[in-house]
């Protein structure tokens, strides 16, 4: 009998890569694997457990699947990922509809876990979260044109508010040759844009090579024929050195778009949260990046309502945003995560944190309006992703997939995967709109 296995992947890009790896292992073992969750023998739901909203989404998803199981459209439910790792003793006890639980150290055991579950066992499996990454194939699920490539697992930063090191283990880099080999396969499958991800890509190589190796890795990736864009996600500010800046500035394939989570700017809060560096060092870094990488677009993430944040510290953060004019900002109200040092500290109440997050986004909306206005009349290279019969849509270097929106434009005949030079002519509902440069002549 051919068993049908459905997949649901929640949370971050790194989690999605794990889902795609599990899908490959199951497919390679003869299972029929897809994203369907109806009329399947089992569903594997790969969960996130990072913050309260992610936990709530995971629990709601499991409960929805449980309804499908009760209705007979789902045979078994297998829960994997961070929520499973975080609540290893509670899930099977409190959610009797779940048939198996697999921690993040056991992704590579998914075939055995699913087989045993289908045979009627109730399985619990928790492997070593510090074990080296297993190299395996993937079933690509994102886009025929872009794909994530994960260069490391885990994290050694130990920020006081973050649960990730307790769930994902210590930082473990993959070998350069394994990453390059995977990237070459992606290119052969038509991928044009690589999005380099890890919890902290700037730390890449320190554990296995004894030195930062991201700059060298990027040079190797840039040599791969077929890969046109390389996008960098999650650079820790104090690990960005001159060698890396030179490579980013000098290599045309590396997009001048840098995602650098800073979380806050106040020195005391940064120190309390175990973030390396000071507010002044962050300011200096951003100034250096703008000077040495002309036209760079910066993205960051911030946390409003961190322990120790009073009105003065919050105003300092707001003033910093107005001065730095970071083009892309995501902000989250502080979520006290049990098991982290920050959860035991004194922090603003939930309403205050939410109000401050909304105030930050109000400031950021003005910055985005200014940034969008500055693009009108300029030509930007766009990767064509869709055509709806009237308008083409795609992304430039300034838009990361699933985060920053798209550019809509008109043109003569193009096909998906083309690159087009687009003149931005207007901003409609916050999104750039334009026409191809040839059509504008």
Whole-number mean pLDDT: 94
Widest sheet, order of strands: 2-1-3-4-5-6
Spans of at least 5 consecutive residues whose pLDDT stays below 50 are none
What does the main sheet amount to?
6 strands, parallel
Strand content: 15-25%
Q: Give me the number of helical elements.
A: 15
Shape: globular
Count the beta strands: 19
Helix content: 25-40%
Question: What structural class is derived from the secondary structure elements?
Answer: alpha/beta
Alpha-carbon distance between the termini? 61 Å
Radius of gyration: 23 Å
Describe this protein with a few key phrases.
six-stranded parallel β-sheet; 36% helix
Structure write-up:
It is a single chain. By secondary structure, the protein is α/β, with parallel strands linked by helices. Helices cover 36% and strands 23% of the residues. It has 15 helices and 19 strands. A six-stranded parallel sheet has the order 2-1-3-4-5-6, with helices on both faces. A six-stranded parallel sheet has the order 7-10-11-12-13-14. The longest helix is centred in the last third of the chain and has 26 residues, at 350-375. The radius of gyration is 23 Å and the shape is globular. It starts with a strand and ends with a helix.
Q: What's a quick, concise take on this entry?
A:
The chain has 441 residues and is α/β, with parallel strands linked by helices.
List the helices and strands and how they pair.
Elements: E1 4-9, H1 13-28, E2 32-34, E3 40-47, H2 52-71, E4 74-81, H3 82-86, H4 91-94, E5 100-102, H5 110-118, E6 123-125, E7 146-150, E8 152-153, H6 164-168, E9 172-173, H7 176-188, E10 193-197, H8 206-209, H9 214-222, E11 229-233, H10 242-250, E12 254-259, H11 267-272, H12 279-292, E13 297-304, H13 311-324, E14 328-333, H14 350-375, E15 379-387, E16 392-395, E17 407-410, E18 419-428, E19 431-436, H15 437-440
Parallel strand pairs: 1-2, 1-3, 3-4, 4-5, 5-6, 7-10, 10-11, 11-12, 12-13, 13-14, 17-19
Antiparallel strand pairs: 8-9, 15-16, 15-18, 16-17, 18-19
Helix pairs in contact: 9-10, 13-14
């Amino acid at each position: 009998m051919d068993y049908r296995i459905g997949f649901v992947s929640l949370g971050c890009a790194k989690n999605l890569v794990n889902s795609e790896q599990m899908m490959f292992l199951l497919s390679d073992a003869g299972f029929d694997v897809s994203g369907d969750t109806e009329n399947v023998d089992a569903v594997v739901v790969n969960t996130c457990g990072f913050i309260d909203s992610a936990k709530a989404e995971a629990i709601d998803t499991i409960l929805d699947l449980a309804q499908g199981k009760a209705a007979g459209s789902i045979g078994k439910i297998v829960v994997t990922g961070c929520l499973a790792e975080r609540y290893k003793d509670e899930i099977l006890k409190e959610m009797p509809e779940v048939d198996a639980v697999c921690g993040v150290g056991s992704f590579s055991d998914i075939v055995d876990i699913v087989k045993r579950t289908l045979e009627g066992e109730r399985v619990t499996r928790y492997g070593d979260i510090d074990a080296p990454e297993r190299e395996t194939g993937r079933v690509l699920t994102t886009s025929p044109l872009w794909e994530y490539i994960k260069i490391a697992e885990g994290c050694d930063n130990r920020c006081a508010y973050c649960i990730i090191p307790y769930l994902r283990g210590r930082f473990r880099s993959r070998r350069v040759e394994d990453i390059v080999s995977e990237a070459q396969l992606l290119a052969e499958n038509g991928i044009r844009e690589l999005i380099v991800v890890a919890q902290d890509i700037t730390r890449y190589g320190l554990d296995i090579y004894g030195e930062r190796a991201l700059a060298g890795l990027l040079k190797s990736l840039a040599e791969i024929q077929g890969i046109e864009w390389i996008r960098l996600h999650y650079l820790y500010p104090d690990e960005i050195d001159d060698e890396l800046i030179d490579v980013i500035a000098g290599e045309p394939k590396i997009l001048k778009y840098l995602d650098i989570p800073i979380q806050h700017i106040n020195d005391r809060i940064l120190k309390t949260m175990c973030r390396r560096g000071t507010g002044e060092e962050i300011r200096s870094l951003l100034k250096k990046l703008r000077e040495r990488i002309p036209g760079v677009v910066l993205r960051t993430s911030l946390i409003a309502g961190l322990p120790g944040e009073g009105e003065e510290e919050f105003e300092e953060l707001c003033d910093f945003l107005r001065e730095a004019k970071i083009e892309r900002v995501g902000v989250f109200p502080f979520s006290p995560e049990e098991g982290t040092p920050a959860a035991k500290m004194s922090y603003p109440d939930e309403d205050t944190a939410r109000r401050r997050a909304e105030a930050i986004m109000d400031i950021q909306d003005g910055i985005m309006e200014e940034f969008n206005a500055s693009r009108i009349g300029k030509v930007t290279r766009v990767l064509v992703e869709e055509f709806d019969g009237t308008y083409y849509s795609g992304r430039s270097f300034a838009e990361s997939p699933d985060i920053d929106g798209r550019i809509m434009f008109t043109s003569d005949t193009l096909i998906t995967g083309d690159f087009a030079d687009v003149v931005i002519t207007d901003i409609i509902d916050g999104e750039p709109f334009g026409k191809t440069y040839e059509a504008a002549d």
